[in-house]
Amino acid sequence: MPDDVLVVHGGTPLHGQIRVRGAKNLVSKAMVAALLGDEPSRLYDVPRIRDVEVVRGLLGVHGVKVTDGEEDGELVLDPANVERASTDEINVHAGSSRIPILFCGPLLHRLGHAFIPDLGGCHIGPRPIDFHIQALREFGAVVDKTPEGMHLTAPAGLHGTKFELPYPSVGATEQVLLTAVLANGVTELRNAAVEPEIIDLICVLQKMGAIITVHTDRVIEIEGVPRLGGYTHRPIPDRIEAASWAAAALATRGEIEVLGAQQVDMMTFLNVFRSIGGEYRVTDGLPARGVEGGIRFWHPGGELRAVALETDVHPGFMTDWQQPLVVALTQARGLSIVHETVYEQRLGYTEALNTMGATIQVYRDCLGGTPCRFGRRNFKHSAVIAGPSKLHAADLVIPDLRAGFSHLIAALAAEGTSRVYGVDLINRGYEDFESKLSALGAHVERP
Ligand code: EPU
């Protein structure tokens, strides 16, 4: 059992207001982008989360000076003295994240060499990097795989290319963007991911001097430029964290106002939230009067309704919204169906919910939607949730970031006292979650 444990006295509705800052899945990439410039960059609203620390450490060993700015959450990234790091130095920082793979293009441009250790990240299936390697080779990189990791060089420099992704992978699209902006010539990427975090990364790169066109039908065209400068950027808010708190409000029959949450990037989530019977109100901010906007989510009383949903790439229902929402679905009357089409093994956490009294069956078939690429293979990637179920307390071990948050919500919704082990993993992506829980009236404590 991990020794970091949170004791959760459940059964109390969460009530109150919290704030989300810059999206984890943009902030970390924008930090990597700073490596491409020849001037300092300034990033605002950076949350204090483990993934940011990982990138900060990796940038540090490569000579990028990262300092805190004047504003809370402001980082200044100075790439004036980029230098080669030793394998040992890189290993110290890279262990717990998948972000290091995105250093390939920028390091090849700046140093002509990159080393990428074995990747960490959440254990949600095999999570291969074949698209990344294929793309880098198309740009002219030479990839040498060794037992310790991958060494990359670019003997003839990197040049633009035409490349079609087999699946609109977020990371591989970012890899292509971060490599193509300084490559010689034009790159055309087909079947690209177009998540809001990617569009925001494109905004960052454009501020630095890149020329990037987003066409319809998932085609992105990048005209390589000889140099990039710095950027000043306030990132889009974290829509995964916002949805997680929304699900917590619903599962505990409470009410949470998520300051900073933005409707435009959460429309698909909001539709599902309303279909289940949750209510929300979007409040626009009034900057001139210092009033911050956000979304207030609440359980209106009565019973929730079952739904069928399918996770998908943007503009579909995000895979990272799935786990917290399933906890709320255990409280809905009827049979809900969740078809997970992004990751093949992202339903394992439902076993823990069953030990708490939920009734969730997982299937290999593509249920309730269109057949996906996991359908004819041996992956349990569809879930049927029968509700409503009375959840009771249990001892839980957190398996990964999003499943971890769903365990936490389940413990908060359940009657009795649960012990949630491995809870520090949640700090990878949720800033100050323990203080936020306390602010919302949750009864939680470290033993
Ligand atoms: N894939 C491959 N080969 C590759 C790359 C991806 O087969 O080379 C497959 C993956 O195995 C997966 C699918 O493509 O089945 C989608 O993966 P993707 O590359 O889009 O995911 P990612 O870039 O590794 C990011 C987020 C995830 C989020 C996904 C999907 C970051 C750091 N991570 O991962 O976020 O779930 O996109 O939106 O941006 C999280 O925040 O907890 C998290 C896991």
Molecular structure report:
- The chain is built from 13 helices and 24 strands.
- The protein has 447 residues and is α/β, with parallel strands linked by helices.
- It folds into two domains: 225 residues, UDP-n-acetylglucosamine1-carboxyvinyl-transferase, Chain; 210 residues, UDP-n-acetylglucosamine1-carboxyvinyl-transferase, Chain (Alpha-beta prism), CATH 3.65.10.10.
- The strands form six sheets. Strands 17, 18, 19, 20 and 21 form a five-stranded mixed beta sheet that branches. Strands 22-23-1-24 form a four-stranded mixed beta sheet, with helices on one face.
- Strand 18, helix 10 and strand 19 form a beta-alpha-beta unit.
- Helix 1 runs parallel beside helix 7.
- The longest helix has 13 residues.
- The model has no long low-confidence stretch (mean pLDDT 95).
- Uridine-diphosphate-2(N-acetylglucosaminyl) butyric acid (EPU) binds next to helix 1, helix 5, helix 6, helix 10 and helix 12.
